Amino acid sequence: MRERTVASHFTRAALGGARRQGFDYSGLLLQLGISPELLDEPRARIAPEQFTRLIQSLWLALDDEYLGFGKAASKPGSFAMMCHASIHCRNLEKALQRGLLFYSLFPDAPRLTLSREDEWVRLSLDDSQLWDPDHFLSESLLVIWHRLGSWLIGQRIRLEQATFSYAKPAHGAEYDLLFPCPLVFSADRSSLLFHSRYLHMPLLQDERTLKHFLERSPADLLSRPDDGDSLSSRLRRLLSRDSTRWPDLDAVAAHLHISPQTLRRHLREEGTSFQELKDQLRRDIAIYHLGRADLSLQQIAEQLGFSEPSAFHRAFKKWTGLTPGAYRAQEL
């Protein structure tokens, strides 16, 4: 329930390769409970589990883990084999080097390289040869390698910078969920920068944990945004501890031992506000319950702190472009 929902943009973008190949995915969307109306609404969101299942289903349907965006297909199972080849390495540096070497064996695979810059390490992607108009595969590859590395060593690798070889896209507001660090667009390459200390850390995973990991990954890595260390993320975690009570800004500021003015200023610097964070969390909780039919619309409204169901209806339509009733009808 506390997990962030996925913007409808990413669902449309993920289907781009299938669309290009003339694959009819209408039956697949119906099976996953993703309606065309939901897909066409720019403000709509879907649950992370739905997105995971969509990516996994597309891999199998297209017989391609690159989903039609690469210069050549990557057969399903390639990612799993790469993980099996890397899981016994001594430390993260060896594991990443072996994983990148694995993909370099395929001449048309997207090129990823690891390079040192003093105390920093840069993971660079050559996306110049991709057919990727929405940058879906570029985003996915960088996210997957970052989160795979974090999983291997059992701790989140803090990103210092993410650069992109293209201008900030229309869905750029979602990038703080994918890459919680300073972003640079229209750069000379797409890359992630992190501290070299992580490379020497031993792997904490093994064949047993890898088997469980591969049941849902790497699709799962894409569907669960990285909350990072930002104040916005800390506030979201704080608010989600008890979603039946919604503290005001003054109470949250007191909990964080800062003044309300300072809290507002920091959030403004991160491009958000307390009300916006609260609304995003309430939107995601509403979508969680609407997809499960465990609560009535009135009960959801009450849990989210709305005194009247009509106020909840208006707010939800503002957030997603659909009424709660219409959303539930499409999900169930």
TrEMBL record:
GO terms under cellular component: cytosol
Residues of the HTH araC/xylS-type domain: 233-330
Keywords, in A-Z order: DNA-binding, Transcription, Transcription regulation
A GO MF term: DNA-binding transcription factor activity
SUPFAM superfamilies for this protein: Homeodomain-like
Pfam families named among the record's database cross-references: Arabinose_bd, HTH_18
PROSITE patterns on file: HTH_ARAC_FAMILY_2
Gene3D superfamilies in the cross-refs: Homeodomain-like
Listed name of the protein: AraC family transcriptional regulator
